[in-house]
Amino acid sequence: MKLVTRYLLRAFLGPLFTCLITFNSIFIIFDLFGNLSKIMDSEISFFSVIRYYAGLVSMYSAWFIPASCMLATLYTMWQLSHFSELTAMRASGISFHKLTVPFFAVSTAMAVLIIVNTELVLPDASEWSSRMEESSFDDAKPQRKRNLLYVSPDGVYNWRFNSVDTSSYNGMKNPGALEVKWTENENGVDMFHGVRTDDARFLDGVWWFHFPHVIEFDIDGSELNTPNVTVDVPEYVPMYGLKDDPYDMFLTMRNWEFLSSLDMLRVISTHGQGDPEKMFDFWYRTAAPWACVVITIFAIPAGISTGRQSVIRGVIMALSSFFSFYALSMTLKFFGQQGVVPPALAAWLPNLLFLVIGAVMYRRLT
Reduced to 3 states, what is the DSSP secondary structure of residue 153? Predict the structure, then answer.
């Protein structure tokens, strides 16, 4: 790595990490105003407090990191221009493109960091923090739901769980007592069927029911009062006809905003086809991280303008671009979720539009 590159990285990374620490610290302090007394009364461990705020911060990293990239780029370019360092570097034969490569490299790395966070960290960490807050910091207790209904994607099978832990995949694989009802067309007539068990388990891709009891219905679908007779069958019986995957059940029961983009796509493919709101959320999840790069393109010319001319002008230019970008994003979010604008276009258009504008501004400096 060349000396100039190391110098630029050091000049940029310092303000970047300062902004990240500042944003996260302010956010945590504001949250402590409302929850400090609950945390003190609960007497939870220091590690649990750290874990709680790590999960909380991970939810907002897609906002904090792009804003930090913008401010760090603005400040660094102002410093380089104000003290004529940028002019000296270019006079020594270094092209403007090479001078800005470290900024784009770091902003791209920050975009990748957001992707890693939303795909691997956010789903479980945010879910845990949410349950911790709901319990008033007593414990991140499992979310048990009673009489929970799950309908198969084809609408045929209706699963009713007696009491199931929806906060973990393992809870959905071992839901305990449940009943399953479905209809079959027999000779042109819809016939109702059902089975009930006191313990269900999903093992090796197959549902196993403990002493399953067949539910009988009349022609109108009303359940008949039949005795629960245990027949001579193995203790656990494989139910090969039930194809519903407990992971799909788990995803549909989980908080939508805590899902990774891959899990969002899985839910959409099984249950959300044609739902513009879910489609927009998926596409926005893929587009949001790259705001780091788009905003950096705007901040470079704004920082140079600040260093050469008026500080206020450069700051206003950068902040106006930043808020215009997110204002457009929120506007298109509304239209995209309503289906007025194609969800993919609504999610990606702000990035593409501001990327073009920023590239034009950047080009004028070269």
Answer: coil
Check pLDDT > 90 for residue 24.
yes
Q: What are phi and psi of 276, to 5 degrees?
A: -65, -30
Is the CB of residue 289 less than 8 Å from the CB of residue 62?
yes
End-to-end, the C-alpha distance of the chain in Å comes to 23
Task: Classify residue 269 as exposed, middle or buried by CB count within 10 Å of its CB (0-12, 13-18, 19+).
Answer: exposed
The Cα–Cα gap between 117 and 64 comes to 13
Tokens 């313990």 correspond to: 199
Cβ burial of 215 (10 Å; 0-12, 13-18, 19+) is middle
Residue 310 pLDDT > 80: no
* C-beta of residue 329 within 8 angstroms of C-beta of residue 336: no
Interval 204-228: pLDDT, tens: 899 999 988 888 887 777 787 765 5
User: What pairing do the DSSP bridges indicate for beta strands 176-186 and 144-151?
Assistant: unpaired
Do 123 and 259 contact (CB within 8 A), yes or no?
Answer: yes
3-42 vs 96-116: helix crossing angle, rounded to 10: 30
Among 256, 343, 296, 359, which residue's Cα sits nearest to residue 108?
296
Nearest to residue 353, comparing CAs of 269, 287, 294, 292?
Answer: 294
Do the beta carbons of residue 185 and residue 219 sit within 8 Å? no
Lowest-confidence segment of 91-95, 104-108, 111-115, 276-280 by average pLDDT = 91-95
> Is the separation of the CB atoms in 66 and 318 below 8 Å?
no
Cβ-in-10-Å burial (0-12, 13-18, 19+) of 154 comes to exposed
Beta strands 189-203 and 213-215 are antiparallel
Q: Are residues 299 and 74 in contact, defined by beta-carbon separation less than 8 angstroms?
A: yes
Contact 196, 237 (CB under 8 A): no
Residues 6 or more apart whose CB falls under 8 angstroms from that of 233 comprise 211, 212
